[in-house]
Design a protein that fits this description.
Blueprint lengths: L6 H5 L4 E3 L6 E3 L14 H28 L2 H7 L6 H26 L7 H37 L2
Antiparallel strand pairs: 1-2
Helix pairs in contact: 2-4, 2-5, 3-4, 4-5
């Protein structure tokens, strides 16, 4: 019986892949596709299962990154709420620094994957957009005010 969505199942060797003949998802341990009957090469199946697992992980990580990026306005708004403004400021600045680092790590791990998988291409575009817009927000809300403050202090 499968471990389902447990940590053990996530750490196990990838076991599913797309049949090269009919494109249905099948078990890598199978001798033949249960949908079209095509014979399965064990090494090719293992390699395809590993690729599919990497693509799934990349898409999942991009989804988490997108969700985390959407919390930026929440932390920005918390900066103006009495008694928790420090939490908002720390969260906002922390995410503005952490998300671009996360983008770089994602690109280092997954950018070399060559596939025509639509979900992966969408995840890649999402990470690109996050990698462009979050540093712009960082510059606008942190770096520019810091530099303006220095210039004002120098002119006094």
């Amino acid at each position: 019986m499968s471990d389902g969505f447990s940590i053990g199942a996530a750490m196990a060797e990838p076991t599913i892949f797309e049949c090269p003949n009919c494109r249905e998802t099948i078990d890598a341990a199978a001798d033949a596709c249960r949908f079209c009957g095509a014979r399965i090469d064990k090494e090719a199946a293992r390699a395809a299962a590993e690729l599919m697992a990497r693509i799934n992980k990349a898409c999942s990580d991009a989804s988490y990154m997108k969700s985390t990026t959407f919390t930026l306005p929440v932390f920005f708004g918390l900066r103006f709420v009495p008694f928790i403004s420090l939490l908002g400021t720390i969260g906002f600045i922390g995410l503005l620094i952490g998300i671009p680092i996360w983008v770089l790590v994602w690109r280092h791990k997954y950018n070399r994957i060559v596939t025509s998988d639509r979900d992966f291409l969408k995840a890649k575009r999402t990470v690109f957009l996050i990698g462009v817009f979050v540093p712009m927000i960082l510059a606008l809300f942190v770096i520019v005010p810091f530099l303006v403050g220095i210039l004002i202090a120098m002119n006094r």
